[in-house]
Amino acid sequence: MIELPALGWQSIVIFVVFALSLLIATYCTYAERVIAAFLQDRVGPDRAGPYGLLQPLADAVKMFTKEEFFPGGANKVLFVVGPCLAMITALMSSAVIPFGNTMSFGNNLFFLQGIEVNIGMLWIFGVVSLGVYGVMIGGWASNNKFSLLGAVRAASQNISYELAMGMSLIAVLMISGTLSLREITLQQSVAGEWQVWNIVKQPLGFIIFLVCAFAETNRTPFDLPECETELVGGYHTEYSSMKLGLYLFSEYVNIFVVSAVMSVLYFGGFNFPFQYELRDWFINSQGWELASAQNLITLLGTVGLFLKIFAFIFFFMWIRWTLPRFRYDQLMRLGWTILIPLAVFNIVLTGALILFGVI
């Protein structure tokens, strides 16, 4: 066994997390087309490779080889900075998500998590709030009225729905008493009891968070910043080549991240029912060592977490091809007059339930 310092193992984990985020975002473009074809009863991509599996690679080659274009009067520096900032912030938000429990190799014990900080939820909210700057900068630097209108819509939409999203998470913090995503995940782990998942304790908070997640990722029915019927293409109207690709991929990375966050906060993260009983069975009945059994349970938990994430990603895509787009006044009314009051009510209700010892 190769012995590496803890920093070396953690660096490998960080690299794998970023690589997985990019890979999943790339193949989300393929999944979007396949799901759309299935829901619309037509044939999806089937030319590039068997079953069209090489279509994302063909798209990437196309993006890299297309002509670079800068619109007249555009700020060239900010025109490039915008999509780069959107992609960087999307990837940074995945760094604190716990994708698994502890793993041991030789004398090394480490987490399947990029970085473990006790303010993981604040990290995600802080980084995600910076992501809107990439959209704003790109829309403004394009020197195009449609791009600017799309950027303004994105900024006002994010501000509106971040409030409700943040308040929906306050109730989770009241229950868990910590901002660490890893600690919140471990608190949902009791031997044989999936009922301790926060979705059971916070159904209203989860619904509010889910709706806000659609708005934060600019997905249908909240895709007003990219509304092609009104704004041509929204904030990335003037973009081409890989700069456009960064905007498109960052959206799918954000979908992956928000799906992982929902799985961690409300559906137990890497926990699954009877995990400890299964571990003890391997130890007592099969004669496995504790470290080997724990490694297996960790890997199974990681697989379970990714299944939850993929289920949410499918739900995002299903909604896109099912519901029509909101009008902008309807979008604002939903955020300010419905979701925020519901989030406040959920906080008060959670406090009352904690006070009376119900949860």
TrEMBL record:
InterPro entries: NADH_UbQ_OxRdtase_su1/FPO, NADH_UbQ_OxRdtase_su1_CS. It catalyses: a quinone + NADH + 5 H(+)(in) = a quinol + NAD(+) + 4 H(+)(out). It is found in: Cell membrane; Membrane. PROSITE patterns: COMPLEX1_ND1_1, COMPLEX1_ND1_2. It is a multi-pass membrane protein. Keywords: Cell membrane, Membrane, NAD, Quinone, Translocase, Transmembrane, Transmembrane helix, Ubiquinone. GO terms for molecular function: NADH dehydrogenase activity; oxidoreductase activity, acting on NAD(P)H, quinone or similar compound as acceptor; quinone binding. GO terms for biological process: aerobic respiration. Its EC number is 7.1.1.-. One of its GO terms (cellular component) is plasma membrane. NCBIfam families: PRK06076.1-2. This is NADH-quinone oxidoreductase subunit H. The lineage of its organism: Bacteria, Pseudomonadati, Bacteroidota, Cytophagia, Cytophagales. The gene is nuoH.
